[in-house]
Amino acid sequence: YKKSSFTYYQYINSNSNTITIDGLTPNTSYDFAVSSVNKYGILSTYSSTVTHTTATSTIAPATVSGVSATGGIQYVIIEWTNNSEADLSSYNVYRNTTNNPETATLIGNCKTNYFVDGGRTGGIEYFYWVKAVNTSGLVSTNFSIVASAIPRNVTSDDVVTLAGSKVLIDGTTYLSNWRKSGDLTKIDGGSISTGSVTTVFWSKSFNISRY
């Protein structure tokens, strides 16, 4: 058997014509096929494939923990501890300029345990919360604890250098894998969300494409 989106099968042995398979992910399509094995370990041709979608879960993911936010130059990196649910699908990230999750805006959905919120205005405090989403579409009942950070703008006092594929500001990597507009760009190793922003480093202007 395998998830329908996967390429390779997992194998389970059975000495009867029935078997119970535990630990499948809720609301997920699986393919099943059967082959007989003789005493020499030789397998027969597989049966035709049967596809079945498991039942949806009725249990929402747990509250996300370990949320932190770190401000950079016109961006904030939000990080958290991965949930342990087997049917975990992704995370929703929310932002507000006041410490109130109920009026926060959903700014992104990601499958990693970090999110880079680019294009922020320096000097403003941003508040963030995270919720987990499972394969059945259920979302954590409660918001995570709040995490906040204040990004800053580039100033004339910043010392900017180019080191190969990296842009360094005051000796710290601001952009890694930087090339030119249209190429994959990362901030401190984290992928940036879709969009673009023009950032001025001293008298030089770089258009940073974000993916």
- Categorize the overall geometry: elongated
Radius of gyration: 24 Å
Helical run tally:
0
* CATH top level label of the domain at 65-149: Mainly Beta
CATH architecture of the domain at 65-149: Sandwich
Distance between the termini: 35 Å
> Which class of secondary structure composition applies to the elements?
mainly beta
Q: Write down the secondary-structure element order.
A: EEEEEEEEEEEEEEEEE
Spans of at least 5 consecutive residues with low confidence: 176-211
Proportion in helices: under 10%
Let me know the average pLDDT: 79
Could you state the CATH homologous superfamily of the domain at 65-149? Immunoglobulins
Spatial order of the strands forming the largest sheet: 7-6-9-10
Could you please say which CATH topology of the domain at 65-149 applies here? Immunoglobulin-like
Instruction: Determine the strand fraction and express it as a percent band.
Output: 35-45%
Query: Main sheet?
Result: 4 strands, antiparallel
> How many E-type strands?
17
Quick synopsis:
With 211 residues, the protein is mainly beta. It contains no helices and 17 strands. Strands 7-6-9-10 form a four-stranded antiparallel sheet, with no helix packed on it. A three-stranded antiparallel sheet has the order 1-2-3, with no helix packed on it. It has a three-stranded antiparallel sheet with strand order 4-5-8, with no helix packed on it.
